[in-house]
Amino acid sequence: MRWQFMRGMAIMVFAVVLVACGGSSTSSSSSSSNQDSLPSINLAANSISVNVGAGQAKNINTPYVSVTICQPGTSICKTVDNILLDTGSTGLRVLASTITSLQLTQVVVNNAPILECASFISGDAWGPVKLADVKMSAEVASSIPIQILADPSYSTIPSSCGGSQATQISNTLKTNGILGVGLFISDTQSYFNCVPTTLNNCRISLSLSPNLQVQNPVSAFPVDNNGIIIKLPSVSANGASLITGSLTFGIDTQANNSSSGSYVIPTNSSGLFTTIFNNTTFTSSFIDSGSNGLYFPSGNLSSVLVNCSSYSLAGFYCPATTQSYLAALTLKNNIQGNVSFSAANAKTLVASGNYAYNNITGQIGNNLFDWGLPFFFGRSVYIGITGRTSNAGIGPYYAYTY
Q1: 8 A C-beta contact, residue 194 and residue 202
Q2: What is the spatial distance between Cα 133 and Cα 140, in angstroms, rounded to a whole number?
Q3: Are 300 and 211 contained in the same domain?
């Protein structure tokens, strides 16, 4: 998801069709599911299924995974479905209503609970930080900080996090949570040290050590902790109703996660790299599975890449005919890698009733190029975590293969 400015630069997925509400079941010590659950496939012990389909949100280009959350050191667990897989943010955030059977340990500093205000362009993610064991397939991140959204014990939002006027992610997300598996280990967002009765007196900009901040679960795995690989099949120009791929943990740590032959994109410390498109250099480029389109300024193409007139498609491009383009990415050793993509009419695509598209594009601010979910179709995309080493290099970096 495109956060405020990398360390997550995210915009929430546009709701281009009617959104259906739902939630995971609440039985403990077992796997939970609901009528909106998507299929899974048999994978290696360091991989889980990724589905792009209607799911719970009924939004286009939304990648879903399932995550098991446990009370630390116990077998009391909940598997929560319909969690958004997001390479543009850091850490697990889950709705309180999906884990009501769990008693997670509150992170406390100076005898007061820690709460987080994580800022997205479309709103704020407000809620307490608690410790949990996070399990995906055979991988376990033990006793790491996660954020609980829409926790009824902390329903009052302090003015420093937008107060009563704040747009909360928990009200707009329409999924059960966000799994942030981006380039960073901790999320470096705003933290508060306060008690529920005095929320408006919370101290903002709390100097919180990185290990107490919301953590990228992958970075806490015992072995496969240096990054991830997302592999999604190709999609036709007309889209697909459902596709299933994989999320594999680790890079060059096992036989199934080799980076051999990949095109490596080093980033700066903020996770940004350079894209050259339409004779323009975009130095603030990033790869983000939580963005449901490819987003870039139309520039001198504005007469062709016209904005969609429909309110529900605001921000998307609706060209009269499908446009084909070529962009160049700055790869390792300053080599350029060419990437072709198409921009189709978003209104026509969405009318098909499908949910996975490789040619949805839209508007974003100057100097930004957001390689959203369409970039992932037909590729294996690597996310190298900051400070961690693989054959592809030392993170942060992106990489891809066809």
Answers
A1: yes
A2: 7
A3: no
